[in-house]
Amino acid sequence: MKNLHSLLKRQLKRHLNDIDEIPSELKNLIEAVNLAYHQFDADRNMLERSLDLSSEELLSANRELEAHRRHLENLVEERTKELRSTNKKLKHEIKERTKVEKIHRGLHKISNAVFEVEGLKDLFKAIHKILSDFIDTSNLFIALYNKEDDTLSLAYYSDSVDKFKKFPAKQTLTSYVIKTNKPQLLSLEQIYKLKDDGIIDLVGTPSKIWLGIPMRVGKEVKGAIVVQSYTDEKAFNESDLQLLSFVSAQIGLSVERKQAEQDLKESENRFKNLAESITDIFFALDKDYKIVYWNKASEFNFNQISKNVLDKTIFDVLPQINTEKICEVFQRVINQQTPHNFVYSDNLKGRKKFLELNVYPAKNGLSIFIKDITKDKLAEHAFKRYTEELEELNANKDKFFSIIAHDLKSPFNSLLGLLDILLEDIDDLEKNEIKEFVQSINHSSRKIFNLIQNLLEWSRIQTNRFEFKPAYHKLVPIINELMELYEPIAREKGITLENQITTDLEVYCDKNMLEVVLRNLTSNAIKYTKRGGNIWLSWEDTNANHIIINVVDNGVGIEKNRIDKLFILGTNTSTQGTNNEEGTGLGLILCKEFIEKNDGEIWFRSDEGEGSMFSFTIPRRNL
């Protein structure tokens, strides 16, 4: 527009020099053009200024947009990295989850293999196949450790190089895993280092990499699972070690179950063979008391063959044992799962027998053994009887020797005293004095002889060689004979012995036993009475079939802690007498036995320091 205006202006100027007047129309046109030009020029200037301002704003906006673009690019790059990382993690998690699911399926397969295969060898084959889904099992073996001979036996072996069945454990790599109870992932270099350090010895061909896991059966390490590679040192890694460690627990459990199953089967076979061979009656019942097993001895003793009794209840087959007690025992064993046994009598083959019934809890019922113990029972009764007789004989032997010691010691002391005096003073004694001494010695000797004879007769009674023979006897002669025996002994100790039994009484008893009782009680009274004391014998009428005889003294009495033990066999309650006389403590026990044998009773009253009174009853007539 500017250029057009300048051109028009120059042309008008050139042409107007030759024209005097300009037409008004043209002038108006020129003015209009000139006005339009100036207006245009003003508009142009304003537009240029406006354009200048918009360019600055545009540049600023463009810079902001560039900065925002770069921010967006960085943000997109960061988000892309995060997405890539998340995707990588997700892929790893999916891979691990797939691996875990695969492991769980493998564990499930191993667990099921216990019930699907026959023996341990087949179980190990199944385990080998299942493990091949996880790791390289080209060279795998399962070793079991025997503590007794320190050896390793290969329960399962699959190896491309070595062939073993059994070898000493000692310092092998497998033994190292078992004894340390730690998994080991070892390179060839590490294997040789363990060998150089003296920790292991090499057995077989060294492998490039060796992985061994202890195999636990229960709480004990029973062996190891080993995989190895002779060619690839990167065949196994830590992940494989962890995986095999995890799987080994299930393998150990499966081995334990299969071993227990085999042991149970073998045990059942042995038990069945044993049950058929034993002479004892044996049968098994289910929880409803139906017979599920019936051995040969049961067939023989009950005249019932196995095929005729199976699935019948034991009470149908043997109605004689359908008692409340046996039913209660059966139910108790089932409920409490504890064995129970008792003895009962029954007829077997037409004879009455003593039978021992042993009831044991079984898996789904009861196992019952019945043993004929008739001979044992009879022998037990005989042995018990013989034992009681032997104990009685031993007790009687002790009593017999006690009587000898108790009843002969004092008379012999008196006799020996007289002999000592006679020997020492015989040259100074008159003839009549010597005669008096000899008479006393003769009298004492005869008394001792009679005493010994009585003791021997009593011993014969105790050993069942002399029959207990009670009869009617005058009491006064027995008491007078007792006084003649013990008056010298009492006089020597300065004790007065008084007899108040002078009535002509008759009693019904074994004379020898009565004499033994009187001697023991009188001797004890002398023993525990001090010099200058008194002892007297008396009687009382009960106005019944018995009389009471009392032996009373004013001696030292009996201590309270001894009162309840005086008549107990096996409790030695004897104490020293007032002149240090010794005793065995069996005299009173013997008295009690003899009095009771003669249908009487014996008792005593005593105050410590004031004396004692021993009393017993004796029958007046044959009851």
Describe this entry's structure for a reader:
The protein is α+β, with helices and mostly antiparallel strands. The chain is built from 16 helices and 18 strands. The protein has a 6-stranded antiparallel beta sheet, with helices on both faces. A hairpin with a 3-residue loop joins strand 17 and strand 18. Helix 11 runs antiparallel to helix 12, helix 13 runs parallel beside helix 14 and helix 14 runs antiparallel to helix 16. 24% of the residues are buried.
User: C-alpha Rg, in Å?
Assistant: 62 Å
Structural class designation: alpha+beta
Helix content: 40-55%
Approximate strand percentage: 15-25%
Largest sheet: 6 strands, antiparallel
Write the layout of secondary structure elements.
Layout: H1 2-16, H2 24-116, H3 120-131, E1 140-146, E2 151-158, E3 166-168, H4 173-180, E4 184-187, H5 188-196, E5 209-217, E6 220-229, H6 238-277, E7 281-286, E8 291-294, H7 296-302, H8 306-309, H9 314-317, H10 324-336, E9 340-348, E10 351-362, E11 365-372, H11 374-425, H12 431-462, E12 471-474, H13 475-492, E13 496-499, E14 506-509, H14 511-527, E15 534-541, E16 546-553, H15 560-563, H16 587-597, E17 602-607, E18 611-619
Parallel strand pairs: 13-15
Antiparallel strand pairs: 1-2, 1-6, 2-3, 4-5, 5-6, 7-8, 7-11, 9-10, 10-11, 12-14, 15-16, 16-18, 17-18
Helix pairs in contact: 2-3, 2-6, 11-12, 13-14, 14-16
